[in-house]
Amino acid sequence: AFLLAELLALPETSAVACLVRANDEDTGLLRIKDTLKKYGLSLSPVQEEKIVALPGDVALSDLGLGWEQYQFYSAYASVVFHLAAQVNFVQPYSTHRSPNVLGTLNMIRFCNNKRLKGLHYASSISAYGPTGLVTGATHLAEDEKPAAHLAALSYDTGYAQSQYVAEMVVWNAIENGLPITIYRPGYVLGHTKTGVVNPYDFFGRVVASCMRMGSYPVLASQREDFVPVDFVASALLHIASGRDNHGHAYNLVHVDPTTSIDLPTSFEIINKIGLKTPMRGIAYSEWLNNVLKASNDPLRPLAPMLEEKVLGNRTRWEMQQGMPVFGTENLRRALATCPKLLQPPSIPSVFE
Q1: Following DSSP, what letter does each residue of 290-309 receive, concatenated?
Q2: Which of these, 106, 135, 136, 132, lies nearest to 121 by C-alpha position?
Q3: Taking the model in full, what pTM does it have?
Q4: Which of 41, 205, 217, 323 could be cross-linked to 36 through a Cys-Cys bond (beta carbons 3.0 to 4.6 Å apart)?
Q5: 3-state DSSP call for residue 321?
Q6: How far apart are alpha carbons 141 and 129 in whole angstroms?
Q7: Strands (DSSP E) along the chain, which ranges?
Q8: Three-class SS of residue 37?
């Protein structure tokens, strides 16, 4: 939604065709507008007129457009942003394969049909799995392919596994000469000015659950690379505008790795914002028992990920401890012409 709003605000943007799951164009357009409204994003009448709703599905070979529309937009489009993905931390790889892996392959084929189009693909730092704990990796250069970290993927979620496979498909296309750029956002938080955030994503559920219980799990070595959503959207578009930036990956995290914080520090910051009753840190096992006792806890739908032990006594979430530092060499080079993006807001200010 935030990327779409920034794209529509560009004077050089004549139209943005949005593939959306819907039965018809009117319903699709309504879904797009409702999503923008949900995140507090308002458009001018001119900007709204630039939106073209295309009912479809990335998991289908023709994107659900039908042959004629597929051929038309293959010739019409000049650039493609592929951010669609199914994200579920409980469902297996098989559930994510069609939308995330085949969907990415279908977008690559679309970009290679008729006129060659640049593809900007949103991957995830999850594509590496818990490699820090499993392989001992301490630093991940942006152009380092996830293949070297395959051993870690069996301990992660089906979503992460699908991101690994999809990104390897993209790297293969890059090696075959296609103009593709990969973006791996850190953990995306709300907008720095409006504070609008997705309350139903994983961290949103964690915070809501912990505030309800008055306690949080002490996972001291679980580092979080938080970034505000407006930084992600602006950085991605700036990189996309550079002619020589394709063929590389960019970790959309803070360029200074010392700004990342661990989970307990995150909750200490939240405590300082002004909670009447500060949350206290407790052992993970005690915290999990409290989550499972409450039938209406926001994290109950994610219980399998939180309680299933996958390596020794560690659950899938605990496996995320000891993650390596994500390199930003490519990011710093691409953002050198926009210094303000090299200095995103500090983590405490984002929480506030």
Answers
A1: HHHH-TT-TTGGGHHHHH-E
A2: 106
A3: 0.95
A4: 41
A5: coil
A6: 15
A7: 16-20, 51-55, 79-82, 118-122, 139-140, 180-185, 187-189, 215-217, 223-224, 226-228, 249-252, 261-262, 280-282, 309-311, 314-315, 325-326
A8: helix
Q: Say how far apart CA 194 and CA 237 lie, in whole Å.
A: 20
Residues 6+ apart with CB under 8 A from 136: none
Return the sign of the alpha-carbon dihedral for residues 72, 76, 80, 81.
Answer: negative
* Phi-psi label, residue 328: left if phi above 0, alpha if psi -120 to 50, beta otherwise: alpha
Alpha helices, DSSP H only, in 128-177? 131-135, 150-153, 158-175
Sign of CA dihedral 208, 209, 213, 218: negative
Distance between CA atoms of 70 and 50, rounded to whole angstroms? Answer: 19
Report residue 332 as tokens: 């710093």
Token digits of residue 168: 């390897």
CB 251 within 8 A of CB 332: no
